[in-house]
Amino acid sequence: MAADNWKRYHSFPEYMGDGTIDMDGDTFNVALFLSTSDCATLTETVYGGLTNEHANANGYTTKGQALDSVTWVTSTITTTFDSANEVFTASGGSIVARFAVIFSDTAASDELVCYSLLDNSPADVMATNGNTLTIAMHASGIMTITGGQS
Amino acid sequence: MAAQTLTTSGGSPGYVAHMKEHRKRIMLCYDRVKAKAKTNPGAAARLAQYDATLARYDVELASIEKEG
After folding, report:
1. Most buried in the list A24, A39, A146, B16, measured by CB within 10 Å?
2. More confident residue, B37 or A3
């Protein structure tokens, strides 16, 4: 089982460029969404516009968890967004989700960054009571932005 | 179902590979974030995370090398 690559929302570069999102200072959350969510629509712009997040239960808290040690690093013409792995622990029931969404919890309207399909079969993923669900970032990072000439 | 790990980008787990690469990325942006931390509380919080994560990675990598 593997998760899909992260897909960035169309408006993300605009939010970086106009200062809505500060890559060095914002807190970025990762939140879990159900198969019925519209979060795979790349024209979505803010967290509040997304439907069908995982319930605030079973160890999961609405708006998810903050990513740890976010990095934003440029090497020649490629800039990489990365973080430590994220671990959710189910408690009192199962955590069942289809998607993970990263957004800025600091930006005024919780602007969106990207989403991932957690099992690219596609299928739901589940952590039963007492077990963990780890979203492991790829060695290449969450996302890269590249272009121009070196 | 037991605990599970889902690696994004459709790749193999690559836990150690990511840890090594993420460690390099932290080092590359550490000074920039440190400079911003003087006036930006979010950057200050991130700097503290960097210190904790680097310490954790060092312990884990040393353990892996010892086992390997």
Report:
1. A39
2. B37
Select from A98, A135, A8, A115 the least CA-distant residue to B18. Answer: A135
Supply the mean pLDDT for chain A. 95
φ, ψ of residue B28 to 5 degrees: the values are -70, -30
Burial label for B39, CB within 10 Å (0-12, 13-18, 19+), is exposed
Strand partners, A28: A104
């439907």: which residue's tokens?
A: A51
Q: Which of residues 14-73 of A touch B (CB under 8 A)?
A: 22, 24-27, 68-73
Task: Tell me how far apart the alpha carbons of residues B35 and B40 are, in angstroms, rounded to a whole number.
Answer: 9
pLDDT confidence tier of residue B65, bands split at 50, 70 and 90:
confident
Contact criterion met (CB < 8 Å) for B14 and A25 = no
CA A108 distance to own-chain centroid: 18
pTM of the shown model:
0.93
Q: Is A137 on the interface with B (CB under 8 A)?
A: yes
Compare CB distances from A84 to B13, B22, B28 and report the shortest one's residue.
B22
